[in-house]
Write a structure and sequence with these properties.
Layout (H helix, E strand, L loop, with lengths): L1 E5 L4 H13 L5 E8 L6 H15 L2 E6 L9 H14 L7 E3 L4 H13 L4 H5 L4 E4 L2 E4 L7 H10 L16 H16 L3 H30 L5 E2 H5 L3 H14 L7 H13 L7 E3 L3 E6 L2 E6 L11 E4 L5 E2 L5 E5 L6 E4 L6 E2 L8 E2 H5 L13 E3 L5 E4 L3 E2 L1 H10 L2 E5 L4
Parallel strand pairs: 1-2, 1-4, 2-3, 4-6
Antiparallel strand pairs: 5-6, 7-10, 8-9, 9-10, 11-14, 12-13, 13-20, 14-17, 15-16, 17-18, 18-19
């Protein structure tokens, strides 16, 4: 048995680490992970304190340094995601990650999520045992309150870090902790306990829903993603649950209720597969061929990946947005290769008229793959091909005459 503790050095995790050292079986391996966010000037001192505490307890400490990508937007959410990513670097599927959440955290989280319009499952929030991706998460202090932890720390002469930012009510959780909950307690004694109890009841209700959600999700899920027609056949109240669980099953956090409902509303009105999209932190959900597909979000194309080159075809041509263009057989002519600029038209084999490339691609290639397609032109600026997806009548004739083929090796192959 190997247990990892998320150890910030604050009161809560200091109590957890000390308690686990005393109470885990003798043959259990206990190690700690401290995440160094680098956001506070005292961050180095905090890491040194954590090292000192672990040394005194005979516990191995791993210090993970992370960087917040954009300090102008939701630092709390970014820091949380970075912490769990750091934990995942150490915690194997057979291990357990112990976190120091307690009953006051449950009450605060319930209030936060109520303000965000969350549903039953989210309002139930923390569980003693749960999973985060491949990690098993254990919260052994969940039935205790902050006052209980304070009493334990004082009784055992523990030293802990007091983060001055915890007094900053500009952060939502600090505002609830310091302003809202004390006001509620003054009017409704034991308000935190009542909120924690309500969260437990909501968690029980969510558990009753889970078999129905799992059964319907299995019906709606195919090898590529969620079948839109089958998802839409479910009651509207169930659709958001299915979408949320599908994302969680694929290791992705679901957006808030409003974003989910807006996406589902757009799906009822969509006209083409490329006009509706749900964006997550590092993923996107898009519709293609009647299926909602989850994919990793790619970096938007920039001028650095622009393309306009003459190619003699003697050697394969690697392209800046990925993939390789090559002839199978001797290249018939030098061609110009570009990326899509808009308004292109092409005459297909057996056709007398030119057709809109945009319209043709809309039924052949998922929207997120189109920007990487190479457009191949002859010396008269006539479009010969779009990757291998569209071949013009002129290039088709050349290919038949010379026994060759234009081949596009995309990065996804």
């Amino acid at each position: 048995m190997r247990v990892w503790v998320g150890f910030s050095g604050g009161l809560d995790s200091s109590v957890l680490l000390h308690w686990l050292k005393r109470n885990l079986p003798a043959d259990a391996s206990l190690q700690a992970i401290h995440v160094h966010h680098g956001l506070n000037p005292a961050a180095d001192a905090w890491a040194a304190h954590c090292q000192s505490v672990c040394d005194a307890l005979g516990i191995v400490l791993h210090i993970e340094r992370i960087a917040i990508a954009d300090v102008t937007r939701n630092v709390e959410a970014q820091a949380r995601a970075a912490r769990y990513a750091a934990f995942a670097c150490h915690v194997a599927p057979a291990d357990t990650l112990a976190l120091a959440h307690h009953a006051d955290d449950v009450a605060e989280t319930l209030l936060l999520r109520l303000m965000r319009g969350a549903g039953t499952e989210a309002l139930g929030n923390m569980k003693v045992h749960s999973r985060y991706g491949d990690m098993q998460v254990w919260r052994p202090l969940l039935s205790l309150y902050r006052a209980d932890l304070q009493a334990y720390a004082e009784a055992n002469a523990l030293a802990w870090i007091e983060d001055a930012s915890n007094a900053d009510t500009g952060f939502d959780r600090n505002f609830l902790r310091r302003e809202v909950l004390p006001l509620l307690e003054s009017r409704f004694p034991n308000a935190a306990a009542r909120l924690a109890r309500s969260a437990a009841l909501l968690q029980a209700d969510a558990a009753l829903l889970q078999p129905l959600i799992a059964d319907q999700l299995a019906r709606c899920t195919g090898p590529q993603g969620l079948h839109l027609a089958m998802l839409r056949a479910q009651p509207p109240e169930l659709q958001a649950h299915l979408l949320r669980d599908w994302l969680h099953d694929n290791g992705q956090p679901a957006p808030g209720a409003e974003a989910l409902h807006e996406f589902l509303r757009q799906l009822t009105m969509h006209e083409t597969d490329d006009d509706t999209r749900l964006d997550g932190p590092d993923y996107a959900v898009q519709l293609w061929d009647g299926t909602l597909i989850l994919r990793a979000k790619t970096t938007p194309e920039s001028e650095d990946s622009a393309l306009d080159v003459l190619w003699d075809g003697r050697e394969a041509l690697p392209l800046p947005r990925g993939g390789v263009l090559a002839w199978q057989g001797a290249a018939p002519v030098t061609v110009r290769v570009r990326y899509r600029q808009g308004g292109e038209r092409i005459r297909l084999p057996g056709q007398a008229m030119h057709h809109s490339v945009k319209k043709l691609l809309s039924t052949r290639v998922p929207p997120w793959q189109r920007a990487a397609l190479p457009f191949v032109y002859n010396g008269h600026n006539e479009l010969l091909a779009v990757g291998e997806v569209l071949i013009s009548a002129q290039l088709d004739d050349l290919s038949r005459q010379h026994g060759l083929r234009l081949h596009w090796h995309s990065d996804s192959e």
